[in-house]
Amino acid sequence: MDNRAANEATPAGEGGAFAYLDRDEFREHYAHPENRDRLLFHVEGIHCTACLWRIEGVRDDVDGVVQARLDMGRHLLEVEMAPGARVADVATRLEAMGYRARAISFRSAADRDLTRKRLLMRLGVAAASAGNIMLLSTSLYSGAERSVVAPAFEWLTFILFLPILLYSAVPFYRSSLAALRARRASIDVPIAAAVVIGTVLGVYHLVIDQGDIYFDSLAVLVFLLLGSRFLLTSLQRKYLSPGHLSAFYETNRVRVRNPGTGRLEERHIDRVGWDDEVIVRRGERIPVDGIITGAEVWVNAAVLTGEPYPRRLLDGQEVFAGTTLNSDEAVVRVRCTGADTRVGKLLEETERGVLSQTPLVSLTDRAAQWFSATVLALGAVFAVVYSTVDVHEAINRALALVILACPCALALATPLTQSLALKKAARGGALIKKAEAFEKLQQVRDVFFDKTGTLTRGELELEGWYPTAPDLVERGVIVALETGSQHPAGLVLAADAARLPHREAKLHNRTEVPGTGVAGEFGGIVWELRGVRSAAALDALGAPTDAGGTSVGLFRDGRLVKVARLGDTVRAGSGEVVAAFENAGRSVHLLTGDAKAPAIAVAEAVGIGQERVTAGVSPERKREIIERHPRALMVGDGVNDAVALSRAHVSVAVQGSMETSFRAADIYLTQPGLRPLADLFSLSRATITIIKRNLLFSLAYNAVGAVLALLGIITPLLAAVLMPLSSITVIVSSVAGTRDWRRFATREDVAGAPGVDAPVAQPLYASRGSGA
């Protein structure tokens, strides 16, 4: 069954013309390969974001629709139905709303862009016909209208206009009929009326051989309007399609080893295929799911697992996109890329709701609808009133008003700016689940921080060795002792030793006693790594004896020779972030389940007053406190603080697995430290400012244009040229305004900046736990 047959067949029976959508043979070819209740439609007639909300509204209008997601850029609607529900009802509902829906195969969707292709074909036909019509019209205007060839030229312009009338202008007819059936305002109604009425009058004047013919003006008008539509469709494709979260894990260019020459070459990620060998270097995110090839590597997979310490991966083990390499270099044999990766699938599920209608978008959409209805009413009243003076001029001015005052820029301004902001945030390490988070951040009055893992690192890190750092042999022994161990402290020590030159050690009789330590024999010597609590032993080696950290000793034949000091410290930059919130008029609180003494110590270190410290509280108690503050921002662990995060006005998860954090929080920080949180507030403020500026410009542009059109200064043809300029200006305004966000997007301020956590790729590694 091909696509043409599937969409043109109109079998009788229940479901009418769309009954075929629920037939087994259709589902077999067109439904999602893994879920026969998921289908894909190409939807025609989409012009602005109001269409998005209207189309996705089938989820509420049609029984059995589980999910409806529209990709505005490609005009693709993905629908998921409950088992046994009728897809035909969805297509029928879309048709009744004025949108033409054609089912297409998931397998071919990635290679098809039907709207752009068809619109480009209509535009090309209009351009060719209008160009030839203008050549003939130029001859008529230059004096040929008084010659014997004038009637032939005039009839020839009509013949050349027929492809525009019967093909290029068809979208205006369909949209107008759909709008009239749905009883909603549409600027296509007066445009279609002008084309039809102008054609009828032109033919009538041709037949009686007197009066004006309008084929040249109508041809250019349709060409310009189609050109505007094509431009706006391209802008929607570029800026309004889902995919902002992919900026987090996708890399445009990757290093690939050429299998023939063995040399490295750069390729676009789209040109990377199965079994290609991708080269990744220290500190870089791994761009693909694949298999480690060659030497062992250390990878930080916290973004997927929530475990902040690195994992040791050997030749042949799996590695996933979005994780960070902590070794000098890794060779990864590709298994999948992009949306097919583990993190890609997770983020794709999250993005299904990211374009949901925010309060600000709802407001602008309602304003655009009222504006459109007002313009149409004003144009109709003006045409009626001014027709008593000059019918031809009344129609021209009313048509110019309707064309120029199209609210496309008004409807585009808000989602466009939000889309750019979402992508910038993702590149900067802040994954935002809903665009409305930008609006909510500006409404925050109270900020609640968790302690462990939020204001502090929540993980052990190596502070130093006493009295001296391990030598080559000792580092090799540490790596060998902790190989196969999952103890956090041991992994920290092993990772630190492995990154430095060391002599490989093959242990004999390796034993591990949980809660005590690990031991093994190498070179005739029994080596041990275990906790040290004796103040005298620590003092003898010059190690700190306070109770604020964890001490792990390296023993040689039972004699303590080295001590490693590990501890959880306040995140660098936490104090600056707290101060920034206080200076912005927000009240900052510390909310923790830890004891009061360490909680107050951390609060004092970051600048939070003791009176705003609540310690020793359960997760349920945290939830109650958050619920008492309706404008609260909760910043915490995506796992331990899930309940409180879910009840906050807006919530931020700073660690934990991405899957868990995205369920509980609105925002997930993938960068270490709290600096991205302060940047997010600046980003949200700039986003709202740009949106307001764009809305003000759109209203002013349309208002001034409306006055000039009614005065007769702007003709319909000039209006068709000027109409897309408002949308272009909104694009330029948004893109230019987001240049101030470059620091956030590139995170150039992170590495080495005072008061900011070092990136994951730095040589010291961290993990939870205590003891050895």
Mean pLDDT score, rounded?
Answer: 77
Largest sheet: 7 strands, mixed
Class of secondary structure makeup: alpha+beta
Alpha-carbon distance between the two ends: 66 Å
Number of strands: 27
Number of distinct helices: 30
Tell me the radius of gyration: 33 Å
Shape: elongated
Q: What share of residues is helical?
A: 40-55%
Overall domain count: 6
Spans of at least 5 consecutive residues with low confidence: 1-15, 745-772
Sheet with the most strands: spatial strand order: 14-26-25-24-15-22-23
Percentage of residues in DSSP E strands? 15-25%
Secondary structure topology:
Blueprint: H1 3-8, H2 24-30, E1 38-44, H3 49-56, H4 58-61, E2 65-71, E3 76-81, H5 87-96, E4 100-104, H6 106-109, H7 114-141, H8 150-168, H9 170-182, H10 188-208, H11 215-239, H12 246-249, E5 253-257, E6 264-268, E7 277-281, E8 288-293, E9 297-300, H13 302-305, E10 311-313, E11 318-319, E12 324-325, E13 329-337, H14 342-351, H15 359-386, H16 391-404, H17 408-427, E14 430-432, H18 437-441, E15 446-449, H19 451-455, E16 460-466, H20 472-482, H21 488-498, E17 508-513, E18 517-522, E19 525-531, H22 535-540, E20 550-556, E21 559-567, H23 574-583, E22 587-591, H24 596-606, E23 613-614, H25 619-627, E24 632-636, H26 642-647, E25 650-653, H27 658-664, E26 667-669, H28 675-710, H29 716-737, H30 742-746, E27 766-767
Parallel strand pairs: 15-22, 15-24, 22-23, 24-25, 25-26
Antiparallel strand pairs: 1-3, 1-4, 2-3, 5-6, 5-7, 7-13, 8-11, 8-13, 9-10, 9-12, 14-26, 16-21, 16-27, 17-18, 18-19, 19-20, 20-21
Helix pairs in contact: 7-8, 7-11, 8-10, 8-11, 9-10, 11-29, 15-16, 15-17, 16-28, 16-29, 17-28, 17-29, 20-21, 28-29
